[in-house]
Structure formats: structure tokens, C-alpha cells
Amino acid sequence: MPLTPLVYWAQRHEDIYLRVELTDAQNIDVNVNDNMLQFRAQGHGAKGQNEYEFSLEFLLPVKSEVSHKSTQRQVNITVRKEQRGWWKRLTLQERKPVFLAPDFDRWLDESDAEMEIREKEEKRNMLKASRHKEEGFVSLKTGFLFVYNLVQFLGFSWIFVNMTVRLFIFGQDSLYDTFHTISDVMFSCQILAAVEVLNATFGVVQTGVIPTFIQVVGRNFILFIIFGSLEEMHNQPVVFFVFYLWSTIEIFRYPFYMLGCLNTEWKTLTWLRYTIWIPLYPLGVIAEAVAVIQSIPIFDETKLFSIPLPKAVGTSISFSYVLHIYLVLMFLGLFINLRHLYKQRKRRFCTKKRKAN
């Protein structure tokens, strides 16, 4: 004869929870018909390994859909109430079946259950509000980054196209008037590039602060101190090579970031962004070093930015000493940035290979 297992119950305003004490239950059959739940299964219960069954006629109507989950130690059953409310007992008959007992692990009285509902609702509302706030911040951040990269891309594209067209039209002569035709736009782009240092510092973008700082400060030093402050440097061909190398790198970097804001990738552009720096970045640093070396005699002659010493000494410290130190720091920065860019490239392409495999 089938035996009856121990059954524990608890309720919420919308659900009935039953816990059947049956270990390693198999061939589980649970259904609800005419407001009566019928259960049958084989397993190890209070009377050992046997077939167990029971039936319960509920106090109030329930839905016919019933869900159950079997674990190694028990069978958990969930029944949905037809109408939301709190029952004074589980079964239609007033006398409780001998195999049925309260599940004190889940037992709540009506006031506690209502408090639980309110807490869940508050957590749900807080989570929803935080998600909306986060989504709003993410969309605002994405929009800001997209516009910034677009503006920089347009600026450096104008520089690159203008210099290329002038080179084809005027040939070698275009090398000597680059500063006068391009400098205004380059000044704007490089001043705006300071935003990248702030983005890295405050975590707007996930990138290293030091490599970004080195690149932005290094370029602005060349642009404003070496080129901008010395009229003698305005007509030097080195200006052309510095500007052309900078713009060539950036016309691939900024559109890559723009597509990243849209969660889109163009494989050719990705490859160029992580590869073109290999020849261009060292060439750019070499061109900047040439510009610094060419400016040293001019600073010595003009005494510009020289540091005056007391009258008793009767001389001043030439800014060229700073430039000699800067040359050393420049190549140290080159090593740091090359190492950073190599790690970025390796992480990007090695991760893709692992995903492909």
C-alpha cells in the first residue's frame, strides 16, 4: 500500500508552498484537479524506500497550473491562488491531516507577509530607479564620447586632407608654410585633447592615465613651446612631418572610438587602429626630437624662457638645458607608450583568437 510522506506548508498572499519530505524522489506526479492536489512519487521517506502519495483539498480555489522542483532531500511544490488573499487554513476540512505541518522555515503571518511584499517592492523600485539612472548616465556618457571623437576626427581629417592636397599641388613648397595654414586647427584639436586626460583620470574611459598624459602633454609641449613660441620654427619642414604623422594616426583612432560608442566594429579599422602606430608612433617621436634639437640654438640666442639668476652671478640659465632633459624624457615616454600600445594590441587580438577557438 502507498504510504503518506510528511508535508510542510506555508503561504503568501498569492502562493501556497508545500515541502514534501522525500529523499531522491523519482517518478513524481503532481497535479491539481477540482481544487484538489494529488501527489505520487517513489523515494525514501519516513517509512524507508517506498511509493508515497497524498491528496489535499484546498480551502479556496487555486489555479490548475502547479510547479514542482525535486532536490536530493525533498520535493518543493508551488501552487498559485486563484485570488490574492490570506487563508486562515490550508484545507477545506477544519481538521488538519496528520501528515501536514507548518513549514516554520518559510512561515510568516499575514502582517509579516505584507511587510515582505513591501520590502520586495521597495527593492524592486530602487533597483529600477538605479538602472534608469545608470542607463541615463551611460547614454549621456556615450553621447558625449561620440561627439568628442567626431569633432576630433573631423579636425584631424581636415588637417590630413588639407596637407595632402597642398603637397600634391605645391610640392616641396608646401613643407615651408604648414604652420601658417594648419596651426589654428591643430591648436584647437590639441587643446581639446586635454579632455582625454580628464576622461582617463575620472574613469569615463578605461585606459591608462599615464600614457594618455604623456602623449597629450608631449604634443602640446611641441606645439605651443617649440613651434608656437618661436617664429623661426614656423617655416621649418619639420612642422609638416610632425603634423602629418599626428593626423595620420588620429584619422584611424577616433573613428574606431566612435564605432565603439555605437557597439559596432569594422575589422579593417580595428586592425589599422592597433597596427598603424607601429611605424608611425616612433617616426612621430623622432620628428618631435628633430624639432626640439633645431629649436635649442634659437632658445640660446633669443634667451626666451631663460631663468634669470641674481645680479651677483650676472647670467641666466638657458631654456635649452630644459630641452636637453626633455629629450631624454621624450624617449622614456616613447618606451612607456610603446609598451602600453603593444599590450593593448596583444590583449585585443589574443582575446579574439581565444573566442574564435
Secondary structure topology:
Blueprint: E1 7-11, E2 15-20, E3 23-33, E4 36-45, E5 48-57, E6 62-70, E7 75-81, E8 100-102, H1 110-170, H2 178-192, H3 194-201, H4 209-228, H5 237-261, H6 267-273, H7 277-302, E9 307-308, E10 316-317, H8 320-356
Parallel strand pairs: 1-8
Antiparallel strand pairs: 1-2, 2-7, 3-4, 4-5, 6-7, 9-10
Helix pairs in contact: 1-2, 1-5, 2-4, 2-5, 3-4, 4-7, 4-8, 5-6, 5-7, 7-8
Structure summary:
With 357 residues, the protein is α+β, with helices and mostly antiparallel strands. The protein is 56% helix and 18% strand.
Mean pLDDT comes to 88
Query: How many beta-strand elements?
Result: 10
Q: Radius of gyration from the CA trace? A: 38 Å
Q: What's the main sheet like?
A: 5 strands, mixed
- What would the principal axes of the Cα set say about the shape? rod-shaped
* Ends apart, CA distance between termini: 57 Å
Strands side by side in the biggest sheet:
6-7-2-1-8
Low-confidence stretches: none
Estimate what percentage of residues fall within beta strands.
15-25%
Helix share, percent: 55-70%
SSE ordering: EEEEEEEEHHHHHHHEEH
Instruction: Give the domain tally.
Output: 2
Q: Structural class of the secondary elements?
A: alpha+beta
Tell me the number of helical segments per DSSP (H or I, 4 or more residues long).
8
Domain CS: 2-91
Subcellular location: Endoplasmic reticulum membrane
Pfam family, one: PTPLA
GO cellular component, one term: endoplasmic reticulum membrane
